[in-house]
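Homework help board

Subject: predicted structure for assignment chain

Our instructor gave us this sequence and asked us to write out the predicted structure in token form, then describe one feature. I got the tokens but I'm not sure how to describe them. Can anyone check?
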Amino acid sequence: MSKTILLGHGSGGRMTHQLIQEIFVKYFNNETLSEQTDAAILENPNKKIAFTTDSYVVDPLFFPGGNIGKLAVCGTVNDLAVSGAQALYLSCGFIIEEGFLFDDLETIVKSMAEEAFKAGVKIVTGDTKVVNKSKCDKIFINTSGIGIVDNNHTHIASGNKISIGDKIIINGSIGDHGIAIMGSRENLKYETNIESDCASLNHLINKIIKQCEIHFMRDATRGGIASVVCEITQKHKIGIALDESRIPIKESVRGLCEVFGFDPLYVANEGKFVIIAPKKDANKILELLQADELGKDAAIIGEITENHLGKVILNTSIGGKRMVDMLAGEQLPRIC
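My token output:
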């Protein structure tokens, strides 16, 4: 491992996983942490508790479809929701650079309040620190979240019930967030309007888990859907086959990925999640997703297979096959 922290260590790919394993897990290791789920599932006399935390350093702070405040609320709510939890409470911590505009801070905080109300959660505690000018890039936000998990859903975070033949589903088009951030950061003028898909998914997810059997869920943020499926194969020693022609992606996003040399499978999303479910429930899940604005472009994109264990194989749209590996470095830094 490198002797210094690189941007690639925040990519959500191989370097991130190495950092987690070789530093954080090495010293913090315990039974709960070792599951490495989006939210820790904790024992409680009555119901299990899900607890998660995340920090947001997105650049720029304001982008088409959202800002760092909305992103912070959505990201933490979604980490709870894909763990099978009902999100209830959030904390927020701010590190603010001296000289930051009050108007911008108010806009960010107002958007957090609006998104929390929409998601049905309460921001109940927080902290603020101000640092000297040039000691922080404008503002960083940390949000932590707590939710409760029904005993029937505790397996969702770990994926321990994933089985051969399970279908892989995504709730819509990929890559919107990463491309929106890149365009805003570089002041690029696109002919088509590309906005971040930043959204709280908990209401949609709660509807699905009440009616269908779910074996696993994960939101496809840093590292995109590729990192999600690669992590699954490595953890559970199963094979995954993806069908490129079925993966929804807007033509505008696809075109820009080609221009800038990005693979859309690795581009970050903030309103998309991967579901793994038994074949018998796949079509019902698809119907529920497509009936909702946040899932109208949902698709079944692959399945769990007993072939090529520990690997993800993409059946390409031109009839070939290629292996999908964990992102090695940083494709686009500071996207969340």
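Reply (TA_rk): Your tokens look well-formed. For the description, you could write something like this. Helices lie at 14-28, 68-81, 102-119, 176-185, 202-211, 224-236, 251-260, 279-290. That's the kind of observation they're looking for.
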